[in-house]
Design a protein that fits this description.
Strand content: 15-25%
Distance between the termini: 36 Å
Radius of gyration: 21 Å
Number of strands: 12
Length: about 350
């Protein structure tokens, strides 16, 4: 059987022509892109040590096949440099893992986006910013890798928002969120008092990438505390809100990303990562009766449903659902990332 040729040719490679071409088809993210010429795609693939036509997986809801060649096209469009392609391939391996539930992430009315978190040697080798402004603008690797993952979710998986004319396949987010453009940062392991995050999962690889279906970051600050409790009590108040899906999905995860100064204060008191998880599990609670007053439809564990109204009910059913790591630069700021709920983070090692 002869393979179907799905190549599209644009005679005019100008930014204006390409912009109009993509807009007419509902492709791209609404911002200008780099033309994925054969030369640029080939240069991208030259940095990948593997079969360019390997099917990494099918991406829901469209069930498009993701291959390194297809990913290279999207990486070029996003503005990636070639050395980012292996990171993108690893991230997409995470997206297709069953526990990530890509169909749900792509199709829900919740504003969930795919958080991309880079660990290990790749942070420095590929030029990711793990320090000041790690989630902000100004760094090409952070910005373009996150954008490339979003392009893959749109163009391969079909997670495009419905337009005013009813077009679009998958993304039904009621309002969406800014991180649907790009959502990538890096672990600052050099400033962390604890082992790198992948080590906490039992992974020992030179580099890794984590993908997770999350809301935008929710900041918390503490300029005064000299003990862990003062800092973490504020994190717990951010976690213990009924506005997040964590309130109704008991096994949903949180990512608690501590700035280096907060992490140093906590570790200076002798606290390990597990101590932070246990403390937040105990502190991020609300009376069970308040949960019941707000929610009749829920996915709580049986032991949680059996609590009396005055009992304090945790926002998640196990301390290990609270993922703790360090990122960012100077300043006593940290943030919490709530989950969409029906998804699990996936960490994929790579060389």
């Amino acid at each position: 059987m002869t393979a179907l040729d799905t190549t599209l040719t644009i005679a005019d490679e100008s930014p204006e022509a390409l912009y109009a071409f993509l807009e007419a088809r509902g492709w791209g993210d609404g911002l200008p892109v780099v033309a994925p010429t054969p030369q640029r795609v080939d240069a991208m693939l030259a940095a990948y040590d593997g079969d360019p036509d390997e099917v990494i997986g099918t991406l829901a809801p469209r069930l498009g096949e993701a291959t390194p060649r297809v990913l290279a096209v999207n990486a070029v469009m996003a503005g990636c440099t070639p050395h980012l392609l292996p990171v993108l391939v690893a991230a997409v391996r995470g997206l297709v893992a069953p526990e990530f539930n890509l169909r749900g992430v792509n199709s829900t009315t919740h504003p969930v986006s795919a958080m991309v978190l880079v660990h290990g040697e790749a942070v420095e080798r590929c030029g990711f910013n793990a320090g000041t402004g790690t989630l902000g603008p100004g760094n090409r690797s952070n910005a373009t890798l996150g954008r490339a993952v979003r392009f893959v979710m749109m163009h391969v998986a079909g997670g495009t928002a419905k337009g005013h004319d009813g077009s679009g396949l998958g993304d039904a987010a009621t309002q969406g969120q800014p991180s649907k453009y790009t959502f990538c940062f890096a672990e600052n392991s050099a400033a962390s008092p604890w082992p790198a995050y992948p080590r906490s999962l039992g992974l020992d690889a030179p580099s890794a990438v984590t993908v997770a279906g999350m809301e935008n970051p929710h900041n918390f600050h503490d300029m005064e505390s000299r003990e862990p409790a003062g800092i973490l009590d504020k994190a717990a108040t951010v976690m213990a809100t009924f506005g997040t899906n964590n309130a109704v999905v008991s096994d949903a995860e949180y990512f608690v990303v501590l700035g280096p100064e907060h992490a140093a204060t906590i570790a200076g008191a002798g606290w390990a990562r597990q101590d932070v998880q246990s403390y937040l599990f105990e502190k991020a609670r609300r009376p069970a009766g308040d949960f019941r007053a707000h929610f009749t439809s829920n996915l709580w564990r049986p032991w949680m449903k059996a609590l009396r109204d005055d009992d304090l009910m945790p926002m998640t059913d196990h301390p290990e659902n609270i993922r703790v790591l360090v990122s960012g630069g100077p300043g006593k700021q940290s943030f919490v990332l709530p989950s969409w709920g029906r998804t699990r983070s996936v960490t994929v090692p790579f060389a």
